[in-house]
Amino acid sequence: MKITFLGTCAGTEPMPGRHHSSLVVEHDGGLYWFDAGESCSYNAHLRGIDLLTTRAIFISHRHIDHVGGLPNLVWTIRKLNTRSALEPKPMHGRTLRVLVPRMDTWNAVWELLREYQDFTFQVEPSMTRDGVVWDADGLRVIAAHNRHLGEPEAGEPWESFSFRIEADGKSIVFSGDVADISELHPLLGGADLVLMETGHHKVEDVCAYLRDSDLAPGELGFIHHGRAILADPDGELEKAKGILGDGVFLAEDGMELEL
Question: Any idea what DSSP says for residue 174?
Fold first, then answer.
């Protein structure tokens, strides 16, 4: 699996050199998106990532710093497909899966897109639920709810999720946003890489939890950076390494990682 970080900033005001949360996983010729912050499709396309290999988009929750780029992402896939010189078009006859915790989030996106009549592929939205949400083409994605948006009323769905991504004997845990670090516990066992948000948590608390839980991953990458990291990235990284050692990094926009 290859990971490219397209946006590593939490929901702050615009920050130089950073965009809101988004990353892509490339595996076996397919592209899988996890969150879609503003400018994600722009950043990916200009980096040479082939958006027409997109198979699925996974949205952790509805906050704008995680979905602000979703309409443009789907629109850009359509535009690139329409402009392709290939016949049939690369996306012709294919289905693009979009998983969202709430259908009204997707309905708002589709309201912006439905005037475009030249889609030659299907866009299939569905609601995220706990458990395996994708298992195809050698890649599996497992979702686990968290309380970032609170607990739902009886009979209502959970509205925020974290994900575990597995392929080729390797595993990545993507936190999304969580209310408590312990909510990642069901996904952590044997993880090669944990990508953990700091928009709502301190790096020292995350590192201490992983160390003390005996579930420390092979590597820990901080994403969705909050103000502490944005103000002093070197100091925050030094603090984290003092607890967990050298297997810790701060993700930057444009960073690539092979797993």
Answer: E
**pTM as predicted:** 0.97
Q: How far apart are CA 91 and CA 138, in angstroms?
A: 20
Whether residue 219 contacts residue 198, with contact meaning beta carbons closer than 8 Å, is answered with: no
At 81-100, the pLDDT tens digits run 999 999 999 999 999 999 99
Please count the other Cβ atoms lying within 10 Å of the Cβ belonging to residue 207. Answer: 23
Could you tell me what percent of the chain has a pLDDT over 90? 95
Q: Position 164: which residue type?
A: R
Measure the CA–CA gap between 53 and 33, rounded to whole angstroms: 11
The domain limits of the chain are 2-256
b/e burial code for range 91-128 (CB count within 10 A of at least 16 → b): beeeebbbbbbbeebbeebeeeeeeeeebebebebeeb
Distances in Å between the Cα of 233 and the Cα atoms of 207, 223, 252 are: 15, 12, 11
- What is the homologous superfamily of the domain 2-256 according to CATH? Ribonuclease Z/Hydroxyacylglutathione hydrolase-like (3.60.15.10)
